[in-house]
Structures are given as C-alpha cells and as structure tokens.
Write a structure and sequence with these properties.
Layout: H1 35-56
C-alpha cells in the first residue's frame, strides 16, 4: 500500500470493496436529442448563416 517516492509515513489504510454502483443519477447523464429536435434547433442558425453569406456575396 505504499506509494513509491512519497515521503510521508502511512499510519492507516482503508480499503473499499465495491460490490455494485448505481449509474441512475441524472446529473452526469448527457441530454440526448432526436434528429428532429436537432434539426429544429439548427434551422434558425442555418437561416442566419445563409443571410450572412448573402450579405457577403451579393
């Protein structure tokens, strides 16, 4: 249990044996969108890009 080149003296060690974990916490779960939802979010951005490109290249 010693860490090589670590100068401190260990006085106590606690070992944990994990039998199971729960990945059901909503915090680390990424938000997932359907293709339809992504397209709806992207439409205004695409429209704006088109407007800007038309202003640049009349």
């Amino acid at each position: 249990m010693r860490v090589p080149d670590y100068p401190a003296t260990m006085k106590r060690v606690i070992l944990f044996h994990v039998e199971a974990i729960s990945e059901n916490c909503p915090q680390p779960i990424p938000i997932r969108y359907s293709e339809t939802e992504v397209e709806a979010m992207m439409a205004p951005l695409r429209d704006r890009i088109t407007q800007l490109e038309q202003q640049r290249n009349p």
